[in-house]
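Duplicate of earlier report; DUF4386 domain-containing protein input re-posted below.
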Amino acid sequence: MSVVAGPVAFAVGGLLEPAVHANGEATIAGNAAEPALGNVLHLVGFVAASFLLPVSVVGLAVLAYPKRPWGSVIGGLLGVFGWLPLAALTALEDLGYAMALRPERMTYASLYDAFSSDAVMSVFLVVYIVGHLAAYVVLGIVLMRARAVPRWAGWALILSTPVTLATFVVPGKPLVFGDVALVLIVVGSLPAARALIRRRTTESG
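Output:
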């Protein structure tokens, strides 16, 4: 079930995120304005996703492996390495929330900016972006070629990548593209989860 639970947890975190791709001042202000429950749920979603998403992409790779071994290994490795930095990025989200809870919160904005853009966090961010975006393209293709999922499911996974990129290249950076990409990943993962359950049932029977 991690195949679907991972993307769902990430969607929960993403949809409730109080500030997306923002600087320290906007991030801290967004967290301060967000109800406590929303902040907690968005962090819980990202924490759960940081554990479940690497397992999720491995599940997609395993499904296609019998017929497309090399593509599955490449896609799986890209996905695992791409999603592992999510734990560090989630810690950054938690840092923004912790700063927002302090009475002198806005004095920490420059510290947040310095931390989020230093060499370590930049490496995490680049690996995260390149790895998980490339993984869904590769895995969508190999799943379709292996006929492990319907073609629409494979295309949903593939299209999640350009839709995500549209968030950064379309003027105004509309966040709705990111939300659509999350939905595409969840929808595209559902048939894969069903196929894995059927395979497990067949093998155990």
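Residues 47 and 91 are 9 Å apart (CA to CA).

Merging into the original ticket.
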